[in-house]
Design goal:
The protein is α+β, with helices and mostly antiparallel strands. It contains 27 helices and 29 strands. About 35% of the residues lie in helices and about 20% in strands. Helix 11 packs across helix 12, helix 14 packs across helix 20 and helix 15 packs across helix 19. About 15% of the residues have low confidence.
């Protein structure tokens, strides 16, 4: 089946060549939202409203196999049964010096390809990306230039065969490479100064649309422009003679007419066509004069004229799920998205009018057209269209917007990744976004570690980095903290360039909610730089941005109309101290400490940036390589007990395993230890939690009414430097009881359990606070990995831990001593049963640091780390308890 067969089954068809739009038959479409094109022997269908190809094909009464373009059979077949292609002709496009710039090859059965001479291989040709790096030219350029100098007319046709047929009759004819729908502005520039141009359209809808597009492009370049419609000329000839009237077949061209005419009459027949040609006045004028678009048949206003230009452009209009209004337009074989209320769309309208009429347009006319476009976006298509920022998911595939001028995107699947020129995803773009570098295959993600001076948690950091390319999940915020001189701002800037490049390389954390919401809407990664304080209101907004949420505010200059901001974003915050004081924000974060750069190792920023730019494509390629592998691993991952950021934890494990066997366990271990640090930070930053810890330091159990506890905490507050007059300190026992819900989970992480005693007594509710069996009041930052879950994909189970309460085998010699570094790492970092739980009997911070820094080298682990450090006497006593 050919593309014309598909078009005949559709309504509202617009376009030319192999690029068309039409009303989608799979839903109640009022504005053409279906894109139809032809590529590599297939007919491509894409509905901007989201209909699947299967539903579109079924609505046309076809099958999916009908989308493959049929070739006419020939006696000569290849071994696979397909017809052999034989070269019928080669048409060389030569410059003014007679050098071949590029060529069109015509085959039998009818098909075409392009090639150009290979400058590196004399006698060789380039067949792929033929026009990359060169400017294509018109056919018969030398003859065309001579005709312009001699003030002779030029005929424009659709194919090289037509040019050759007309040349034999002494007419100067030209065409462009690849024929219909491929006319460029540069070709019109080559015809500047021509006295008369006659454009002959093939007898089909695409040919006529192509002829009009060429004519429109030549306005201002040629003195006179004429259109020749072969069907109209044939009808007129039949009426003036006794020839029976017949309809010309679809696709009938000037070569067919010449071949059907006796040889001695051919030149006269073409001359008659030229004599009866119709002068081109432009679509904008003819529609206005005929009253087709102008109400009342009067003189069109500038707003009318501009609206006609908008419709001729092929732009479509739609709205998002929160009623934001957008336009989508085809530009050089890709779709560009613009917000109708944006300055960019307004400038597009101004340019559209100026290019057509050579004069500016009033603000009032622009306002009228904006209103009409807004109405079309809201009501022509009732189905909202989802827009994505930077990353997206569709049918199990991940997409990453490169934000370049070609509107390319990276498609990532379980089997690999590649760059797509026409992605099916509609990405929303913003003025600040910068083009991303083109990633390279077989990349190296570890090169990013050359630019971020991590103290530890390298696996956790890499897993977070790759997770930023996973759409539709909550992403843990990363908090970079350290003393001055650790290049925190530089690290944030590099992460922005790697994940979400922008002219705004870092951001200021805004206290104004509306400004912060605008930032969250228009960035995928938001690196907030040099943050020293986060208010409760801003902290709440960041929490919503991490897990997914929105903000509703009154629209400016209105009384009741609102504007809705929705977002789910990646957040990075840097500062000297950890500024996330609220437990809910800490719970959604990972803390990464950077090391101060030594003076002798410090480099100039320009050198760092130059090195990073040299490595960026390789790092980005490594990220996509890793993500592709993780997509294959992810369905097999089962974590027995999930933390609050469950999606991040599960993806983090899959990404870790994609980075290297056993590193998924390292990720879980580092993440668990990181969460323990968060709990301690939350306790240290909360005055009530701090006082409860101190109150219970020498007690195993306490019970009583909340008012009693309130007074006891009040009595020790001063001794521990806590001001009870602070606005965050509870003012009474009722507020204290409500506070328990905020700090309960953090206290449980160190073994303190607050419980309501039921049933409630008549004189008031009572509470109990007790220590867990195996808990001590000391802080346990570093832990031995907990017990493994029953997961088919996890090979190693550490026998060292028997239960989640932290009981340890007496015989520590059961630990294996594997031969490879990875096995050694996996022996210490096995499947985590509860990511929130950590063993309370870690031997030292150094033990944790050494294990977390294991890499895939052949270097030996120091002997002291091949055996567990013997437990101290207090720890052994605690084990007996």
């Amino acid at each position: 089946m050919r593309i014309n067969d598909i078009l005949q089954r559709l309504k509202g068809v617009k376009g030319n060549g192999n690029q068309h739009t039409a009303l989608c038959p799979a839903h109640e479409d009022k504005t053409p939202s279906l894109a139809i094109s032809e590529k590599e022997g297939k007919i491509l269908l894409h509905c901007h409203a989201g209909c699947s190809k299967e539903s579109i094909v079924a609505a046309m009464g076809l099958e999916m196999k009908d989308l493959f373009i049929e070739e006419s059979p020939t006696p000569n077949n290849n071994d696979n049964g397909k017809p052999k292609r034989e070269i019928a002709a080669v048409y060389d496009y030569k410059d003014m010096d007679g050098n071949i710039v590029h060529s069109t090859i015509r085959y039998n059965p009818k098909s075409f390809s392009q090639r150009r001479p290979d400058p590196d291989k004399p006698g060789g040709y380039i067949y792929k990306d033929v026009f990359k790096g060169i400017t294509p030219i018109l056919y018969n350029l030398q003859a065309v230039s001579k005709a312009i100098e001699e003030h002779r007319p030029i005929i424009i046709v659709e194919g090289e065969k037509d040019c050759e047929a007309l040349a034999k009759l002494d007419f100067t004819a030209t065409t462009c490479p690849m024929g219909t729908g491929k006319w460029r502005k540069e070709y019109s520039d080559m015809l500047t100064g021509v006295v008369s141009v006659y454009i002959i359209a093939d007898n089909d809808e695409t040919g006529k649309n192509h002829a009009k597009a060429v004519a429109k492009s030549l306005v201002g370049k040629a003195d006179d422009i004429y259109l020749i419609d072969l069907a109209t000329a044939h009808k007129a000839q039949s009426e003036n003679t006794d020839t029976p009237q017949t309809e010309l077949p679809q696709g009938y061209d000037i070569s067919d007419l010449i071949e059907a005419t006796p040889q001695e009459q051919r030149k006269a027949a073409v001359s008659l066509l030229i004599a009866n040609a119709t002068e081109y006045k432009g679509e904008r004028q003819s529609k206005g004069e005929n009253g087709g678009k102008i109400s009342g048949g009067g003189k069109p206003t500038k707003a009318d004229m501009l609206m006609i230009l908008v419709e001729e452009s092929g732009a479509s209009f739609f709205h998002s799920d929160v009623k934001d209004l957008y336009s989508a337009m085809k530009v050089n074989n890709h779709t560009e998205i613009m917000s109708i209320g944006s300055r960019a769309f307004e400038l597009w309208l101004i340019g559209l009018f100026y290019n057509a009429y050579g004069q500016p347009i009033s603000n009032d006319a622009i306002k009228q057209v904006l209103g009409a476009c807004s109405a079309k976006a809201m009501y022509d298509n009732p189905n909202p269209v989802a827009l994505s920022v930077r990353v997206a998911e569709r049918d199990g595939e991940f997409w990453y917007d490169l934000t370049n001028s070609e509107w390319q995107a990276v498609k990532i699947t379980k089997s690999g990744w590649n760059i797509e020129n026409e992605p099916p995803i509609m990405f929303n773009r913003f003025r600040h976004q910068s083009p991303q570098t083109i990633p390279t295959g077989n990349g190296n993600i570890n090169k990013i570690l050359n630019y971020v001076n991590l103290k530890d948690n390298k696996t956790l950091f890499l897993c977070w980095l790759v997770s930023c390319f996973v759409p539709n999940i909550p992403h843990s915020a990363i908090i970079l903290h350290s003393e001055k001189g650790a290049a925190k701002s530089t690290a944030s800037e590099l992460l922005k360039n790697l994940i979400d490049p922008s002219s705004l390389e870092t951001l200021t954390l805004q206290s104004n909610q509306r400004t912060l919401a605008v930032n969250l809407m228009s960035h995928w990664l938001l690196p907030f730089d040099n943050v020293s304080f986060i208010s409760d209101e801003v902290s709440d907004t960041l929490c919503r941005a991490i897990t997914g949420g929105g903000i509703q505010q009154r629209k400016l200059n209105t009384n009741s109309e609102d504007v809705i901001f929705t977002f789910q974003r990646c957040i990075a915050i840097n500062g000297i101290q950890n500024v996330a004081k609220r437990a809910d924000l800490l719970d959604r974060s990972i803390l990464i400490e950077l090391l101060r750069i030594k003076d002798k190792e410090r480099k100039e920023l320009t050198e760092i940036m130059a090195n990073f730019e040299a490595d960026r494509a390789e790092i980005l390629g490594g990220i996509f390589d890793t993500l592709s592998k993780a997509m294959a691993i992810y369905p097999t991952v089962k974590l027995c007990n999930l933390p609050r950021m469950a999606d991040f934890a599960r993806w983090g494990y899959a990404i870790g395993e994609a980075l290297g066997e056993g590193l998924g366990q390292i990720f879980l271990y580092e993440y668990a230890a990181n969460r323990q640090i968060q709990n301690e930070e939350a306790i240290a930053n909360d005055p009530v939690a701090t006082l409860i810890v101190e109150f219970m330091r020498d007690k195993e159990y306490w019970s009583g009414k909340c008012s009693e506890l309130y007074n006891k905490l009040l009595s020790i507050a001063f001794d521990h430097g806590i001001s009870t007059s602070d606005k965050y300190y509870p003012k009474n026992a009722i507020v204290l009881a409500k506070k328990f819900n905020d700090i309960k989970s953090n206290l449980e992480s160190i073994g303190l359990y607050i419980t309501k005693i039921m049933p409630r007594k008549p004189d008031g509710q009572r509470y109990s606070i007790k220590h867990s069996k195996s808990s001590t009041l000391s802080t346990h930052l570093h832990s031995h990995p907990p017990k493994a879950c029953n997961n088919q994909s996890l090979a190693n189970v550490d026998d060292y831990v028997n239960d989640v309460d932290g009981s340890v085998d007496a015989d520590s010699s059961t630990l294996n001593t594997p031969s490879s570094t990875f096995d050694k790492a996996r022996n210490y970092a096995v499947c985590v049963d509860d990511v929130d739980d950590v063993d309370k009997f870690a031997t030292s911070e150094e033990w944790f640091t050494e294990i977390s820094n294991v890499t895939d080298t052949d270097s030996d682990i120091p002997p002291e780390f091949l055996k567990p450090t013997p437990l101290s006497a207090p720890q052994q006593e605690q084990l007996k308890i």
